[in-house]
Amino acid sequence: MGRGSSRRGRSDDPSRRQRPTRPGSSAGGPDAGLLGTIPTAALDLHGDHAREANRRVRDFLQTQARVAPGEVVHIVTGSGIGSPGGPVLRGQVGELLAHELSRLVDEYRLDLHRGGWLVRVRPR
Q1: How many Cα atoms occupy the beta-carbon half-sphere of 43 within 13 Å?
Q2: Tell me, what DSSP letter sits at residue 38?
Q3: Distance between CA 46 and CA 58 in Å, rounded?
Q4: Which tens digit of pLDDT belongs to each residue from 79-121?
Q5: Number of structural domains, the chain?
Q6: Which of 3, 25, 67, 69 would be a feasible disulfide site paired with 33, CB 3.0-4.6 Å?
Q7: Terminal CA-CA length for the chain
Q8: CATH code of the domain containing 113
């Protein structure tokens, strides 16, 4: 497998299927590279329905892949506190990052508050 193609964990929970950070990206541990980076752009999905959120995430990452390859972006899903039945968008976005949009993603992980995803856009 090439760099960044393996995933930690084998759970069905997308928050557990995170790609490891690049070796040497930070001395603060395996996820410190993303957590220690200020995102260059953010997408806030609060209030979006599932279909609209999917479209917006696709458009956002496609744009970022063109204008900011290699940079870290933040996709804010919310923690799901206000959603009946718990968070929906967080898992849905994790699935998009792991599968359909994986060609645009170098690495990703939940942010510190588990209310969004920090994503490093794949460099060219």
Answers
A1: 25
A2: -
A3: 16
A4: 888 778 778 899 999 999 999 999 999 999 999 988 999 999 9
A5: 1
A6: 25
A7: 18
A8: 3.30.1370.110
